[in-house]
Amino acid sequence: MSALRTVLQRELTGYFATPVAWVFIVIFLVMTAVFTFYLGGFYTRGIADLEPFFRFHPWLYLFLVPAISMRLWAEERRSGTIELLLTLPLTVTQAVLGKYLAAWLFLGLCLLLTFPIWLTVNYLGDPDNGAILAAYLGSWLMAGGMLAIGSCLSALTRNQVVAFILSVVVCFLFLLSGLPMVLDLFSAWAPQLLIDAIAGLSFLAHFADISRGVLDLRDLVYFLLVIGFWLAANVVVLNMKKGEA
Amino acid sequence: MIEAISLSKHYGAFTAVDDLSFQVDAGQVLGFLGPNGAGKSTTMKMLTGFLSPSAGSARILGHDMQRDALAARRRIGYLPEGAPSYGEMTVQGFLAFVAQARELRGSAARQACAAAIERLQLGSVLQQPIETLSKGFKRRVGLAQAILHDPAVLILDEPTDGLDPNQKHEVRRLIQAMAADKIIVISTHILEEVEAVCNRAMIIARGRLLADDTPQGLIARSRYHNAVTLRLEGAEAAASQLSELPQVARAEISDGLLTVFPAAEGLFEAVSDAIGKHGWAVQELKLEAGRFDEVFRRITAGEEAA
After folding, report:
1. Cα dist. A190→A180, A184, A194, A196, A204 in Å?
2. B220 occurs within a structural domain
3. B199 and B245: one domain?
4. What is the value of ipTM here, to two decimals?
5. Nearest to A89 among B11, B70, B84 (CB)
6. How many cross-chain Cβ pairs, A to B, lie less than 8 Å apart?
7. A80 shares contact with chain B (CB less than 8 Å)
8. B103 and A2 in contact by Cβ < 8 A?
9. Cα–Cα distance for residue pair A212/A51, rounded to 1 Å
10. What is the tally of structural domains in chain B?
Protein backbone atom coordinates (compact mmCIF):
# COMPACT_ATOMS: atom_id res chain seq x y z
CA MET A 1 0.00 0.00 0.00
CA SER A 2 2.73 2.46 0.92
CA ALA A 3 4.65 1.56 -2.22
CA LEU A 4 1.57 2.48 -4.22
CA ARG A 5 1.38 5.82 -2.45
CA THR A 6 5.07 6.48 -3.09
CA VAL A 7 4.58 6.00 -6.82
CA LEU A 8 1.37 8.03 -6.80
CA GLN A 9 3.01 10.97 -5.03
CA ARG A 10 5.99 10.99 -7.35
CA GLU A 11 3.77 10.94 -10.42
CA LEU A 12 1.48 13.65 -9.18
CA THR A 13 4.32 16.00 -8.25
CA GLY A 14 5.85 15.11 -11.62
CA TYR A 15 2.85 16.61 -13.42
CA PHE A 16 3.30 19.91 -11.68
CA ALA A 17 7.09 19.96 -12.02
CA THR A 18 6.66 20.21 -15.78
CA PRO A 19 4.45 22.47 -17.90
CA VAL A 20 2.29 19.39 -18.70
CA ALA A 21 -0.13 19.99 -15.84
CA TRP A 22 -0.57 23.72 -16.43
CA VAL A 23 -0.95 23.45 -20.19
CA PHE A 24 -3.42 20.63 -19.81
CA ILE A 25 -5.53 22.42 -17.21
CA VAL A 26 -5.75 25.58 -19.28
CA ILE A 27 -6.66 23.72 -22.46
CA PHE A 28 -9.17 21.55 -20.64
CA LEU A 29 -10.94 24.56 -19.12
CA VAL A 30 -10.93 26.56 -22.35
CA MET A 31 -12.29 23.61 -24.31
CA THR A 32 -15.06 22.84 -21.82
CA ALA A 33 -16.09 26.49 -21.94
CA VAL A 34 -16.10 26.56 -25.74
CA PHE A 35 -18.16 23.41 -25.97
CA THR A 36 -20.63 24.45 -23.29
CA PHE A 37 -21.31 27.99 -24.42
CA TYR A 38 -20.94 27.84 -28.19
CA LEU A 39 -21.93 24.31 -29.13
CA GLY A 40 -24.09 23.50 -26.13
CA GLY A 41 -26.08 26.71 -26.15
CA PHE A 42 -25.85 27.01 -22.38
CA TYR A 43 -27.64 30.41 -22.24
CA THR A 44 -30.04 30.09 -25.15
CA ARG A 45 -31.57 26.90 -23.83
CA GLY A 46 -32.96 28.76 -20.87
CA ILE A 47 -32.76 25.69 -18.64
CA ALA A 48 -30.80 25.76 -15.41
CA ASP A 49 -28.83 22.54 -15.71
CA LEU A 50 -25.36 21.44 -16.86
CA GLU A 51 -26.48 19.11 -19.65
CA PRO A 52 -24.74 21.21 -22.34
CA PHE A 53 -21.59 21.07 -20.21
CA PHE A 54 -21.52 17.30 -19.72
CA ARG A 55 -22.83 16.37 -23.17
CA PHE A 56 -19.46 17.11 -24.80
CA HIS A 57 -17.25 15.48 -22.20
CA PRO A 58 -16.92 12.16 -24.08
CA TRP A 59 -15.59 14.01 -27.15
CA LEU A 60 -13.30 16.20 -25.09
CA TYR A 61 -11.88 13.18 -23.29
CA LEU A 62 -11.39 11.31 -26.53
CA PHE A 63 -8.39 13.52 -27.27
CA LEU A 64 -7.38 14.93 -23.92
CA VAL A 65 -7.25 11.70 -21.90
CA PRO A 66 -4.90 9.92 -24.34
CA ALA A 67 -2.72 13.03 -24.17
CA ILE A 68 -2.27 12.31 -20.47
CA SER A 69 -2.11 8.54 -20.72
CA MET A 70 0.30 8.31 -23.65
CA ARG A 71 3.31 9.17 -21.53
CA LEU A 72 2.44 6.95 -18.55
CA TRP A 73 4.56 3.97 -19.63
CA ALA A 74 5.96 4.92 -23.04
CA GLU A 75 7.94 7.73 -21.45
CA GLU A 76 9.32 5.43 -18.72
CA ARG A 77 10.42 2.98 -21.37
CA ARG A 78 12.01 5.60 -23.61
CA SER A 79 13.98 7.24 -20.82
CA GLY A 80 14.93 3.94 -19.20
CA THR A 81 13.40 4.88 -15.84
CA ILE A 82 11.12 1.85 -16.14
CA GLU A 83 14.19 -0.22 -15.28
CA LEU A 84 14.71 1.82 -12.15
CA LEU A 85 11.04 1.72 -11.18
CA LEU A 86 10.54 -2.00 -11.71
CA THR A 87 13.68 -3.00 -9.82
CA LEU A 88 12.57 -1.12 -6.71
CA PRO A 89 10.93 -3.34 -4.09
CA LEU A 90 7.41 -2.88 -5.41
CA THR A 91 5.14 -5.04 -7.52
CA VAL A 92 4.11 -4.30 -11.09
CA THR A 93 0.52 -3.98 -9.86
CA GLN A 94 1.51 -1.32 -7.34
CA ALA A 95 3.39 0.59 -10.02
CA VAL A 96 0.46 0.40 -12.45
CA LEU A 97 -2.09 1.46 -9.84
CA GLY A 98 0.12 4.22 -8.48
CA LYS A 99 0.69 5.78 -11.88
CA TYR A 100 -2.93 5.29 -12.91
CA LEU A 101 -4.40 6.79 -9.76
CA ALA A 102 -2.11 9.80 -10.00
CA ALA A 103 -3.31 10.49 -13.53
CA TRP A 104 -6.94 9.89 -12.55
CA LEU A 105 -6.68 12.23 -9.58
CA PHE A 106 -5.15 14.82 -11.87
CA LEU A 107 -8.11 14.50 -14.25
CA GLY A 108 -10.39 14.78 -11.21
CA LEU A 109 -8.65 18.01 -10.29
CA CYS A 110 -9.22 19.36 -13.80
CA LEU A 111 -12.91 18.52 -13.43
CA LEU A 112 -13.08 20.21 -10.05
CA LEU A 113 -11.60 23.35 -11.58
CA THR A 114 -14.70 23.67 -13.75
CA PHE A 115 -16.60 24.69 -10.61
CA PRO A 116 -17.29 28.24 -11.87
CA ILE A 117 -19.82 26.76 -14.28
CA TRP A 118 -21.58 25.13 -11.36
CA LEU A 119 -21.58 28.45 -9.52
CA THR A 120 -22.95 30.15 -12.63
CA VAL A 121 -25.84 27.77 -13.06
CA ASN A 122 -26.72 28.08 -9.40
CA TYR A 123 -26.62 31.86 -9.70
CA LEU A 124 -28.85 31.84 -12.76
CA GLY A 125 -31.43 29.36 -11.58
CA ASP A 126 -32.21 26.51 -9.27
CA PRO A 127 -30.64 23.35 -10.71
CA ASP A 128 -30.79 19.86 -9.27
CA ASN A 129 -27.42 19.78 -7.53
CA GLY A 130 -27.69 16.06 -6.77
CA ALA A 131 -27.97 15.37 -10.48
CA ILE A 132 -24.99 17.63 -11.17
CA LEU A 133 -22.91 15.76 -8.59
CA ALA A 134 -23.90 12.44 -10.16
CA ALA A 135 -22.95 13.74 -13.59
CA TYR A 136 -19.57 14.93 -12.33
CA LEU A 137 -18.96 11.50 -10.85
CA GLY A 138 -20.00 9.80 -14.09
CA SER A 139 -17.77 12.08 -16.12
CA TRP A 140 -14.83 11.28 -13.89
CA LEU A 141 -15.54 7.54 -14.18
CA MET A 142 -15.66 7.76 -17.95
CA ALA A 143 -12.36 9.64 -17.95
CA GLY A 144 -11.02 6.84 -15.75
CA GLY A 145 -12.14 4.22 -18.24
CA MET A 146 -10.38 5.94 -21.12
CA LEU A 147 -7.33 6.50 -18.94
CA ALA A 148 -7.11 2.78 -18.14
CA ILE A 149 -7.29 1.99 -21.87
CA GLY A 150 -4.59 4.56 -22.58
CA SER A 151 -2.36 3.37 -19.75
CA CYS A 152 -2.44 -0.21 -21.02
CA LEU A 153 -1.73 0.81 -24.62
CA SER A 154 1.08 3.11 -23.49
CA ALA A 155 2.84 0.08 -22.00
CA LEU A 156 2.99 -1.52 -25.45
CA THR A 157 5.39 1.01 -26.95
CA ARG A 158 8.21 3.39 -26.22
CA ASN A 159 6.75 5.87 -28.68
CA GLN A 160 4.29 8.35 -27.21
CA VAL A 161 2.78 9.27 -30.56
CA VAL A 162 1.96 5.63 -31.26
CA ALA A 163 0.49 5.31 -27.77
CA PHE A 164 -1.65 8.42 -28.35
CA ILE A 165 -3.05 7.27 -31.69
CA LEU A 166 -3.75 3.73 -30.47
CA SER A 167 -5.56 5.10 -27.44
CA VAL A 168 -7.69 7.52 -29.44
CA VAL A 169 -8.74 4.74 -31.81
CA VAL A 170 -9.62 2.25 -29.07
CA CYS A 171 -11.42 4.90 -27.00
CA PHE A 172 -13.31 5.95 -30.12
CA LEU A 173 -14.49 2.37 -30.67
CA PHE A 174 -15.60 2.14 -27.07
CA LEU A 175 -17.41 5.46 -27.32
CA LEU A 176 -19.29 4.54 -30.44
CA SER A 177 -19.88 0.86 -29.95
CA GLY A 178 -23.57 1.54 -29.30
CA LEU A 179 -24.08 3.49 -32.53
CA PRO A 180 -25.16 1.98 -35.87
CA MET A 181 -21.81 3.02 -37.34
CA VAL A 182 -20.06 0.28 -35.35
CA LEU A 183 -22.95 -2.14 -34.91
CA ASP A 184 -23.60 -2.33 -38.67
CA LEU A 185 -20.18 -3.92 -39.03
CA PHE A 186 -21.41 -6.83 -36.94
CA SER A 187 -25.15 -6.99 -37.58
CA ALA A 188 -24.79 -8.85 -40.87
CA TRP A 189 -23.10 -11.89 -39.41
CA ALA A 190 -22.81 -11.80 -35.63
CA PRO A 191 -25.43 -13.37 -33.34
CA GLN A 192 -27.76 -10.95 -31.58
CA LEU A 193 -26.18 -11.78 -28.24
CA LEU A 194 -22.79 -10.52 -29.41
CA ILE A 195 -24.30 -7.41 -30.92
CA ASP A 196 -26.06 -6.65 -27.66
CA ALA A 197 -22.84 -7.23 -25.79
CA ILE A 198 -20.96 -4.85 -28.07
CA ALA A 199 -23.70 -2.26 -27.79
CA GLY A 200 -23.54 -2.69 -24.03
CA LEU A 201 -19.87 -1.69 -24.05
CA SER A 202 -20.65 1.79 -25.28
CA PHE A 203 -19.28 4.61 -23.17
CA LEU A 204 -21.86 6.93 -24.68
CA ALA A 205 -24.83 4.81 -23.68
CA HIS A 206 -23.62 4.45 -20.13
CA PHE A 207 -22.67 8.08 -19.87
CA ALA A 208 -25.97 9.30 -21.35
CA ASP A 209 -27.95 8.28 -18.25
CA ILE A 210 -25.34 9.56 -15.87
CA SER A 211 -25.08 12.94 -17.58
CA ARG A 212 -28.79 13.45 -17.01
CA GLY A 213 -28.10 12.81 -13.35
CA VAL A 214 -29.36 9.22 -13.16
CA LEU A 215 -26.68 7.29 -11.34
CA ASP A 216 -27.53 3.67 -12.05
CA LEU A 217 -25.54 1.01 -10.24
CA ARG A 218 -25.14 -0.83 -13.55
CA ASP A 219 -23.40 2.15 -15.15
CA LEU A 220 -21.16 2.50 -12.13
CA VAL A 221 -20.22 -1.17 -12.19
CA TYR A 222 -19.69 -0.97 -15.94
CA PHE A 223 -17.09 1.77 -15.70
CA LEU A 224 -15.35 0.11 -12.76
CA LEU A 225 -15.18 -3.14 -14.72
CA VAL A 226 -13.73 -1.37 -17.74
CA ILE A 227 -11.08 0.23 -15.54
CA GLY A 228 -10.30 -3.05 -13.78
CA PHE A 229 -10.05 -4.99 -17.03
CA TRP A 230 -7.68 -2.57 -18.74
CA LEU A 231 -5.46 -2.14 -15.70
CA ALA A 232 -5.18 -5.91 -15.33
CA ALA A 233 -4.25 -6.03 -19.02
CA ASN A 234 -1.70 -3.30 -18.30
CA VAL A 235 -0.02 -5.50 -15.66
CA VAL A 236 -0.04 -8.45 -18.04
CA VAL A 237 1.57 -6.37 -20.81
CA LEU A 238 4.35 -5.18 -18.50
CA ASN A 239 5.03 -8.72 -17.28
CA MET A 240 5.11 -10.00 -20.84
CA LYS A 241 7.61 -7.30 -21.82
CA LYS A 242 9.89 -8.55 -19.03
CA GLY A 243 9.96 -11.89 -20.72
CA GLU A 244 10.58 -10.68 -24.26
CA ALA A 245 12.43 -7.39 -24.19
CA MET B 1 25.86 -14.69 -2.40
CA ILE B 2 24.69 -14.14 -5.95
CA GLU B 3 24.05 -17.26 -7.97
CA ALA B 4 23.43 -17.34 -11.67
CA ILE B 5 22.30 -20.80 -12.66
CA SER B 6 22.39 -21.53 -16.39
CA LEU B 7 21.05 -18.05 -17.20
CA SER B 8 20.00 -17.69 -20.81
CA LYS B 9 18.23 -14.98 -22.73
CA HIS B 10 17.01 -15.29 -26.29
CA TYR B 11 15.43 -12.61 -28.44
CA GLY B 12 13.87 -14.63 -31.21
CA ALA B 13 16.76 -16.36 -32.92
CA PHE B 14 19.34 -14.12 -31.28
CA THR B 15 21.02 -15.41 -28.13
CA ALA B 16 22.05 -12.54 -25.87
CA VAL B 17 23.10 -14.66 -22.91
CA ASP B 18 23.97 -18.30 -23.35
CA ASP B 19 23.88 -20.68 -20.37
CA LEU B 20 25.82 -18.47 -17.97
CA SER B 21 26.54 -19.88 -14.51
CA PHE B 22 28.59 -18.27 -11.77
CA GLN B 23 28.60 -17.36 -8.09
CA VAL B 24 29.74 -14.20 -6.38
CA ASP B 25 30.49 -14.15 -2.65
CA ALA B 26 30.58 -11.33 -0.13
CA GLY B 27 33.78 -9.32 -0.31
CA GLN B 28 34.13 -9.94 -4.01
CA VAL B 29 34.14 -7.14 -6.53
CA LEU B 30 33.36 -8.79 -9.82
CA GLY B 31 34.09 -6.98 -13.05
CA PHE B 32 32.10 -7.96 -16.13
CA LEU B 33 34.23 -7.36 -19.17
CA GLY B 34 33.32 -7.80 -22.76
CA PRO B 35 32.89 -6.11 -26.11
CA ASN B 36 29.75 -4.06 -26.69
CA GLY B 37 26.77 -6.35 -27.13
CA ALA B 38 28.45 -9.19 -25.24
CA GLY B 39 25.48 -9.65 -22.91
CA LYS B 40 26.82 -7.80 -19.87
CA SER B 41 23.82 -5.52 -19.45
CA THR B 42 21.34 -8.29 -20.25
CA THR B 43 22.91 -10.45 -17.54
CA MET B 44 22.63 -7.59 -15.05
CA LYS B 45 19.00 -6.99 -16.01
CA MET B 46 18.28 -10.63 -15.24
CA LEU B 47 20.19 -10.54 -11.95
CA THR B 48 18.08 -7.57 -10.84
CA GLY B 49 14.83 -9.07 -12.09
CA PHE B 50 14.07 -6.43 -14.72
CA LEU B 51 14.13 -9.15 -17.38
CA SER B 52 13.05 -12.71 -16.85
CA PRO B 53 15.51 -15.26 -18.18
CA SER B 54 14.49 -17.49 -21.10
CA ALA B 55 16.01 -20.34 -19.11
CA GLY B 56 17.87 -20.72 -15.84
CA SER B 57 17.49 -18.62 -12.73
CA ALA B 58 19.15 -15.99 -10.57
CA ARG B 59 19.31 -16.09 -6.79
CA ILE B 60 20.21 -13.13 -4.61
CA LEU B 61 21.24 -14.04 -1.05
CA GLY B 62 19.13 -17.16 -1.35
CA HIS B 63 16.04 -15.39 -2.76
CA ASP B 64 14.98 -16.62 -6.16
CA MET B 65 14.51 -13.64 -8.48
CA GLN B 66 11.42 -15.13 -10.11
CA ARG B 67 9.58 -16.48 -7.08
CA ASP B 68 10.71 -14.14 -4.32
CA ALA B 69 11.47 -10.98 -6.27
CA LEU B 70 10.58 -8.37 -3.66
CA ALA B 71 12.80 -9.88 -0.95
CA ALA B 72 15.64 -10.13 -3.47
CA ARG B 73 15.20 -6.57 -4.75
CA ARG B 74 15.22 -5.13 -1.23
CA ARG B 75 18.82 -6.30 -0.88
CA ILE B 76 20.01 -4.96 -4.23
CA GLY B 77 21.22 -1.53 -5.22
CA TYR B 78 21.15 -1.17 -8.99
CA LEU B 79 22.55 1.37 -11.38
CA PRO B 80 20.89 0.55 -14.73
CA GLU B 81 22.59 1.09 -18.07
CA GLY B 82 22.80 4.80 -18.86
CA ALA B 83 21.94 5.81 -15.26
CA PRO B 84 18.29 6.70 -15.94
CA SER B 85 16.47 9.02 -13.55
CA TYR B 86 13.38 11.20 -13.61
CA GLY B 87 14.69 14.32 -15.31
CA GLU B 88 12.07 16.75 -14.04
CA MET B 89 12.77 15.91 -10.41
CA THR B 90 15.35 17.69 -8.32
CA VAL B 91 18.24 15.61 -7.00
CA GLN B 92 16.82 15.94 -3.51
CA GLY B 93 13.30 15.01 -4.59
CA PHE B 94 14.53 12.03 -6.55
CA LEU B 95 16.61 10.64 -3.69
CA ALA B 96 13.72 11.19 -1.28
CA PHE B 97 11.47 9.23 -3.64
CA VAL B 98 13.94 6.34 -3.84
CA ALA B 99 14.36 6.35 -0.06
CA GLN B 100 10.59 6.14 0.36
CA ALA B 101 10.32 3.37 -2.21
CA ARG B 102 13.13 1.59 -0.37
CA GLU B 103 10.90 1.63 2.71
CA LEU B 104 13.05 4.13 4.60
CA ARG B 105 11.05 6.54 6.73
CA GLY B 106 11.61 9.73 8.72
CA SER B 107 15.07 10.19 10.13
CA ALA B 108 16.35 6.94 8.61
CA ALA B 109 15.43 8.27 5.17
CA ARG B 110 17.03 11.66 5.85
CA GLN B 111 20.22 10.05 7.12
CA ALA B 112 20.43 7.69 4.15
CA CYS B 113 19.97 10.58 1.70
CA ALA B 114 22.49 12.75 3.52
CA ALA B 115 25.07 9.95 3.52
CA ALA B 116 24.62 9.25 -0.19
CA ILE B 117 24.76 12.97 -1.03
CA GLU B 118 27.95 13.29 0.95
CA ARG B 119 29.60 10.22 -0.56
CA LEU B 120 28.89 11.32 -4.13
CA GLN B 121 29.39 15.04 -3.48
CA LEU B 122 25.99 16.09 -4.73
CA GLY B 123 25.56 18.86 -2.17
CA SER B 124 25.93 21.67 -4.70
CA VAL B 125 23.16 20.48 -7.04
CA LEU B 126 20.47 19.27 -4.63
CA GLN B 127 17.79 21.68 -5.80
CA GLN B 128 18.50 21.38 -9.51
CA PRO B 129 16.29 19.35 -11.84
CA ILE B 130 18.28 16.27 -12.86
CA GLU B 131 17.78 16.93 -16.59
CA THR B 132 19.80 20.15 -16.28
CA LEU B 133 22.85 18.37 -14.82
CA SER B 134 26.02 17.32 -16.60
CA LYS B 135 26.57 13.70 -17.58
CA GLY B 136 28.94 13.19 -14.67
CA PHE B 137 26.44 14.48 -12.14
CA LYS B 138 23.66 12.36 -13.60
CA ARG B 139 25.84 9.28 -13.23
CA ARG B 140 26.57 10.20 -9.62
CA VAL B 141 22.86 10.71 -8.92
CA GLY B 142 22.31 7.19 -10.31
CA LEU B 143 25.04 5.85 -8.03
CA ALA B 144 23.58 7.71 -5.06
CA GLN B 145 20.18 6.08 -5.49
CA ALA B 146 21.87 2.68 -5.83
CA ILE B 147 23.79 2.88 -2.54
CA LEU B 148 21.08 4.81 -0.67
CA HIS B 149 19.73 1.89 1.37
CA ASP B 150 23.17 0.41 2.06
CA PRO B 151 22.37 -2.75 0.11
CA ALA B 152 24.24 -6.02 0.58
CA VAL B 153 24.42 -6.42 -3.18
CA LEU B 154 25.43 -3.69 -5.61
CA ILE B 155 24.98 -4.14 -9.33
CA LEU B 156 26.43 -1.27 -11.29
CA ASP B 157 26.24 -1.08 -15.07
CA GLU B 158 29.16 1.08 -16.21
CA PRO B 159 29.43 3.15 -13.04
CA THR B 160 32.16 5.47 -14.32
CA ASP B 161 30.95 6.06 -17.86
CA GLY B 162 30.94 9.79 -18.61
CA LEU B 163 32.94 10.77 -15.53
CA ASP B 164 36.13 12.80 -15.75
CA PRO B 165 39.36 11.21 -14.45
CA ASN B 166 38.99 12.78 -11.00
CA GLN B 167 35.41 11.62 -10.66
CA LYS B 168 36.38 8.16 -11.90
CA HIS B 169 39.00 8.03 -9.20
CA GLU B 170 36.45 9.07 -6.56
CA VAL B 171 33.92 6.47 -7.67
CA ARG B 172 36.57 3.76 -7.64
CA ARG B 173 37.54 4.77 -4.12
CA LEU B 174 33.88 4.63 -3.15
CA ILE B 175 33.53 1.11 -4.56
CA GLN B 176 36.71 -0.01 -2.80
CA ALA B 177 35.49 1.48 0.48
CA MET B 178 32.23 -0.47 0.23
CA ALA B 179 33.81 -3.67 -1.01
CA ALA B 180 34.68 -5.34 2.28
CA ASP B 181 31.22 -6.46 3.35
CA LYS B 182 29.27 -6.29 0.10
CA ILE B 183 28.87 -8.21 -3.08
CA ILE B 184 29.61 -5.86 -5.94
CA VAL B 185 29.20 -6.55 -9.63
CA ILE B 186 30.26 -3.87 -12.10
CA SER B 187 30.35 -3.91 -15.85
CA THR B 188 32.82 -1.85 -17.75
CA HIS B 189 34.86 -1.82 -20.86
CA ILE B 190 37.64 0.14 -19.21
CA LEU B 191 40.30 -2.44 -18.50
CA GLU B 192 42.27 -0.34 -16.05
CA GLU B 193 39.11 -0.04 -13.97
CA VAL B 194 39.00 -3.78 -13.48
CA GLU B 195 42.63 -3.74 -12.39
CA ALA B 196 41.93 -0.84 -10.05
CA VAL B 197 38.80 -2.02 -8.22
CA CYS B 198 37.96 -5.65 -8.95
CA ASN B 199 39.32 -8.74 -7.29
CA ARG B 200 37.67 -10.94 -9.87
CA ALA B 201 37.09 -10.48 -13.57
CA MET B 202 34.84 -12.32 -15.98
CA ILE B 203 35.22 -11.87 -19.71
CA ILE B 204 32.01 -12.39 -21.65
CA ALA B 205 31.44 -12.33 -25.38
CA ARG B 206 28.41 -13.38 -27.37
CA GLY B 207 26.68 -14.23 -24.11
CA ARG B 208 29.21 -16.85 -23.08
CA LEU B 209 31.72 -16.90 -20.25
CA LEU B 210 35.24 -16.99 -21.71
CA ALA B 211 37.41 -16.33 -18.70
CA ASP B 212 36.90 -16.10 -14.94
CA ASP B 213 39.99 -15.15 -12.99
CA THR B 214 41.56 -12.47 -10.84
CA PRO B 215 42.70 -9.42 -12.81
CA GLN B 216 46.29 -10.40 -11.98
CA GLY B 217 45.63 -13.92 -13.23
CA LEU B 218 44.27 -12.56 -16.49
CA ILE B 219 47.23 -10.23 -16.93
CA ALA B 220 49.57 -13.17 -16.33
CA ARG B 221 48.02 -14.82 -19.39
CA SER B 222 49.52 -12.06 -21.50
CA ARG B 223 52.40 -13.01 -23.72
CA TYR B 224 54.08 -9.91 -22.31
CA HIS B 225 53.99 -11.41 -18.80
CA ASN B 226 57.58 -11.23 -17.48
CA ALA B 227 58.86 -9.88 -20.79
CA VAL B 228 61.49 -7.13 -20.70
CA THR B 229 61.22 -3.95 -22.75
CA LEU B 230 64.16 -1.66 -23.50
CA ARG B 231 64.66 1.63 -25.30
CA LEU B 232 68.16 2.03 -26.67
CA GLU B 233 70.23 3.08 -29.67
CA GLY B 234 71.01 0.28 -32.13
CA ALA B 235 68.02 -1.84 -31.19
CA GLU B 236 68.48 -4.23 -34.12
CA ALA B 237 72.00 -5.21 -33.14
CA ALA B 238 70.97 -5.61 -29.51
CA ALA B 239 67.97 -7.72 -30.57
CA SER B 240 70.11 -10.22 -32.42
CA GLN B 241 72.60 -10.41 -29.56
CA LEU B 242 69.86 -10.86 -26.93
CA SER B 243 68.23 -13.58 -29.04
CA GLU B 244 71.33 -15.67 -28.41
CA LEU B 245 70.66 -15.82 -24.66
CA PRO B 246 69.12 -19.09 -23.44
CA GLN B 247 66.52 -17.16 -21.36
CA VAL B 248 65.19 -15.36 -24.44
CA ALA B 249 62.48 -16.93 -26.59
CA ARG B 250 62.36 -14.15 -29.13
CA ALA B 251 62.94 -10.44 -29.55
CA GLU B 252 60.63 -7.92 -31.22
CA ILE B 253 61.07 -4.29 -32.14
CA SER B 254 58.14 -1.92 -32.45
CA ASP B 255 58.05 1.89 -32.24
CA GLY B 256 61.76 1.91 -31.33
CA LEU B 257 61.11 -0.30 -28.31
CA LEU B 258 62.82 -3.65 -28.06
CA THR B 259 60.86 -6.34 -26.26
CA VAL B 260 62.38 -9.71 -25.39
CA PHE B 261 60.09 -12.54 -24.41
CA PRO B 262 61.05 -15.09 -21.78
CA ALA B 263 61.98 -18.72 -22.47
CA ALA B 264 63.03 -19.38 -18.89
CA GLU B 265 63.38 -17.77 -15.46
CA GLY B 266 65.85 -14.98 -14.88
CA LEU B 267 65.29 -13.03 -18.07
CA PHE B 268 65.55 -9.63 -16.41
CA GLU B 269 68.89 -10.49 -14.80
CA ALA B 270 70.21 -11.93 -18.06
CA VAL B 271 69.20 -8.79 -19.95
CA SER B 272 70.77 -6.57 -17.28
CA ASP B 273 74.01 -8.54 -17.52
CA ALA B 274 73.99 -8.22 -21.30
CA ILE B 275 73.52 -4.45 -21.05
CA GLY B 276 76.53 -4.20 -18.75
CA LYS B 277 78.63 -6.51 -20.89
CA HIS B 278 77.99 -4.71 -24.18
CA GLY B 279 77.92 -1.23 -22.68
CA TRP B 280 74.60 -0.29 -24.34
CA ALA B 281 73.24 3.18 -23.63
CA VAL B 282 69.80 2.13 -22.37
CA GLN B 283 67.29 4.96 -21.84
CA GLU B 284 64.49 2.81 -20.52
CA LEU B 285 64.25 -0.68 -19.09
CA LYS B 286 61.14 -2.33 -17.72
CA LEU B 287 59.88 -5.71 -16.61
CA GLU B 288 56.37 -6.20 -18.00
CA ALA B 289 53.60 -7.56 -15.80
CA GLY B 290 51.49 -8.26 -18.84
CA ARG B 291 49.10 -6.27 -20.95
CA PHE B 292 45.41 -6.54 -20.14
CA ASP B 293 44.25 -5.15 -23.47
CA GLU B 294 46.25 -7.78 -25.30
CA VAL B 295 44.70 -10.58 -23.18
CA PHE B 296 41.25 -9.10 -23.66
CA ARG B 297 41.66 -8.89 -27.42
CA ARG B 298 43.04 -12.39 -27.68
CA ILE B 299 40.25 -13.93 -25.59
CA THR B 300 37.45 -12.05 -27.33
CA ALA B 301 38.91 -11.91 -30.85
CA GLY B 302 38.05 -15.46 -31.87
CA GLU B 303 34.53 -14.86 -30.62
CA GLU B 304 33.88 -11.77 -32.66
CA ALA B 305 35.23 -13.37 -35.81
CA ALA B 306 33.12 -16.47 -35.25
Report:
1. 14, 10, 6, 10, 22
2. no
3. no
4. 0.88
5. B70
6. 72
7. yes
8. yes
9. 7
10. 2
